Amino acid sequence: MEPDFGCWWSNQIAPHQENHFHGTEIAARTFRRADELFPEDEATLAGLIFEKMGDYRSAIECYREAFSLPREKDRTWYFLHNNLGYCLNQLGRHDEAEKMCRAAIEIDPGSYNAYKNLGVALQGQGIYPEAAVLFLRAAFAFPPDPRSIGHLEDLLSNHREEVEREIPDIADHLAAAIDARQKLMQ
Fold first, then answer.
1. Do residues 52 and 66 make contact, with C-beta atoms less than 8 angstroms apart?
2. pLDDT-derived band of residue 42, with 50, 70 and 90 as boundaries?
3. pTM, whole model, 2 decimals?
4. Which distant-in-sequence residues (6+ apart) come within 8 Å of 105 by Cβ?
5. 79 φ, ψ to 5°?
């Protein structure tokens, strides 16, 4: 399974997030990389930059504006739906995020990141067992990314009993996901 380029992008930026884009060098690198990904799409480019700066409201506006562009590249449309879903989750708008993440999965069911973001949306709506399944699916689909395991651990720390009612062996599944990641990372 091929990793999401949006997730790859996040991993490229992650080491610098403690700076929160205060440094002009980091902002310039971010802009250059985003311009490579979306050279003809200023709205998506601006949305990505706002998202990485933590300005989710502005990112949402830009991503929504990008939907007015002709649909030519499925990866771009996957990215728009998935990242709009992510930003909506960050603002607690989980029902809207769910719709965007489901649309992203419909466009590219092989990309794991939308499953993780859909899990966050469902967790935010109190649909814990399905969120757990989505976190596991994302964790097994792309073990190098630890975020899905982290989300599942957080979910279980607060809602274990409810998840275990529907998925009694959730702890075994989590252990298997952690083991798969550890083996891959050796």
1. no
2. confident
3. 0.79
4. 111, 114, 115, 118
5. -55, -50
